[in-house]
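I trust your eye. Have a critical look at both lines of this record:
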Amino acid sequence: MAVKNIVFQLAEESKRLTDIEPYLARKIQELDNIVGQYETEEAERGNCISQWQFKIQAMLESFNHGSESSHTDKQYSDEFVQDFVEKLDDNEKSRVHFPDFKGLTEELEKSGRLNLPPSLVPVHETLKKAYRDITAESNQSIPVIRFLHSVLLCDQRDE
């Protein structure tokens, strides 16, 4: 009787495993497909990275071993930037003036070093009385002064 029970249990277990086998086979196939997809994507990423590295290497080589003129242009640019920074540090007065730029200058009124729209001249005069003419003492260019002054004008109008 004990042997019959064991045989019966083994038969039941065999049937259960046989029934589950197609399900497990489908799951294994799905996992194989996912792994294949990841491997394909990884290969594509590897190709993209290789191409990117090749382009970077080519750019570095052309930069390091480029023609003499490109090296001279870079050197000129570096010198220009260095000169500009030194001028800022020295508070050198700017040679840039608003009339150098084309625009509706006939609509602007002179107020200190600035040309302002007529609606802002009274506000500028109020600021000038309260804080003196800050534009006269500045070594910055007129466009920079105009930007900073417009911040003050906006602040004054909000008060």
Q: What stands out?
A: Helices lie at 2-64, 68-89, 121-131, 134-137, 142-158. The mean pLDDT is 72.
